[in-house]
């Protein structure tokens, strides 16, 4: 018994220290907060940009690092991401880690190429790469986007993307996109990725607040980066773009709510040339019914939305005038249904697929996976008969009991 207890006392310390073989001091590690991917000059080569956080910025050691940049940006050329990660160590003194990586930026040229699918698939081989990492497609090269993105309000780059991700859920101007969702789209379903740029593009006369693409928003001064709209991917290859308005509608047509409420505007049906700002709320999930027994397939979509009137610049009497209230309700309902029908038609004719995740209710119509695959939902959707109905309810018309009269 004494021999046994002696062995136990010897083994316990060994068990406690056995897990320290891979121990590495924190100060010897470098954490990548944003990763940029671009097409290389040679075939099957990519340019990988690492934005590595400076751990001393915004810490107790700020006085020592006040003249240092918030991050170190390094670009190397390699056949894949893991090879590039090793090449970085030829110039970087610390061990590069992906454990804090939450943002992956893909240059549009690479996103439209055939090699992108293989490149992004090989990335998840590294166990440090998180499946929930946010994906962004930049109009210019990803390396240029990262270098130009210097937000004044956020010195730490990872905080900028983290805060932007929270804001997007309130605006609905960009889709939620991450690696995990990308790998779920395997049967030709379309996948929407955040679209961004640090370049400006003149679009002539100003449009509505959500009908822009990244770079088109009329903005003076501030951070040059704009993120609005979507890059459309099919089979992990970019095939087109959607504006902010089209992205919002695509999110509304999904069964699972993506945002709680958004601020948008609609034409005033009484005062031509004026617009009314509203808060649009999804109070309950969108209802989608797919009938695959009919030819062509029948899709019925019911979208319940609640509106709160926020501004009425034309001072039209909506609060006390029932007739005007009915006009406003019908006008908003008609516009939402027309824009939704236009987007569905664009998906059917231009993109040859759907980004509304309607394949989920369609798949439920079949007993086996093979039956669903033989049905070929992607092709059937292109000829499908789609009926979209918005159930519009106006909850209030603002805080004024009676708006002031317009004496024009």
From TrEMBL:
Residues 23-189 form the Spore germination protein N-terminal domain. It is found in: Membrane. It is a lipid-anchor. Coiled coil: none annotated. Its main location: membrane. PROSITE patterns: PROKAR_LIPOPROTEIN. Residues 229-398 form the Spore germination GerAC-like C-terminal domain. Keywords: Germination, Lipoprotein, Membrane, Palmitate, Signal. PANTHER family: SPORE GERMINATION PROTEIN B3. Belongs to the GerABKC lipoprotein family. This is Ger(X)C family spore germination protein. It comes from Siminovitchia sediminis.
């Amino acid at each position: 018994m004494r021999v046994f207890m002696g062995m136990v006392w010897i083994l316990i310390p060994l068990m406690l220290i056995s897990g320290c073989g891979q121990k590495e001091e924190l100060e010897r590690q470098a954490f990548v907060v944003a990763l940029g991917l671009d097409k290389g000059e040679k075939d099957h080569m990519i340019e990988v940009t690492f934005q590595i956080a400076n751990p001393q910025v915004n810490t107790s050691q700020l006085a020592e690092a006040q003249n240092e940049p918030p991050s170190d940006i390094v670009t190397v050329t390699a056949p894949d991401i893991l090879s590039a990660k090793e090449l970085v160590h030829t110039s970087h003194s610390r061990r590069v880690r992906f454990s804090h990586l939450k943002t992956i930026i893909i240059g549009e040229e690479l996103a439209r190429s055939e090699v992108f699918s293989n490149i992004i698939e090989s990335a998840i081989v590294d166990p440090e790469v998180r499946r929930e990492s946010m994906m962004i497609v930049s109009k210019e090269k990803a390396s240029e986007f990262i270098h130009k993105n210097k937000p004044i309000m956020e010195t730490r780059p990872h905080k900028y993307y983290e805060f932007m991700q929270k804001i997007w859920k309130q605006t609905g101007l960009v889709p939620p996109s991450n690696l995990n969702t990308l790998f779920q789209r395997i049967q030709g379903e379309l996948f929407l990725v955040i679209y961004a740029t640090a370049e400006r593009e003149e679009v002539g006369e100003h449009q509505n607040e959500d009908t822009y693409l990244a770079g088109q928003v009329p903005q003076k001064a501030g951070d040059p980066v704009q993120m609005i709209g979507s890059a459309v991917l099919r089979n992990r290859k970019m095939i087109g773009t959607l504006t902010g308005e089209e992205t919002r509608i695509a999110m509304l047509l999904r069964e699972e709510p993506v945002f709680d409420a958004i601020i948008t505007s609609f034409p005033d049906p009484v005062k031509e040339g004026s617009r009314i700002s509203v808060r649009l709320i999804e109070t309950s999930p969108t209802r989608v019914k797919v009938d695959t027994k009919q030819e062509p397939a029948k899709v019925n979509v019911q979208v319940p939305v609640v509106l709160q009137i926020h501004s009425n610049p034309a001072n039209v009497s909506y609060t006390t005038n029932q007739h005007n209230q009915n006009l406003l309700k019908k006008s908003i309902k008609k516009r939402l249904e027309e824009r939704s029908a236009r987007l569905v038609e664009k998906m059917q004719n231009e993109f040859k697929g759907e980004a509304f995740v309607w394949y989920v209710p369609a798949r439920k119509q079949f007993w086996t996976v093979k039956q669903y695959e033989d049905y070929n939902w992607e092709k059937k959707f292109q000829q499908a008969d789609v009926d979209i109905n918005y159930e519009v309810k106006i909850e209030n018309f603002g805080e004024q009991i009676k708006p002031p009269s317009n004496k024009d």
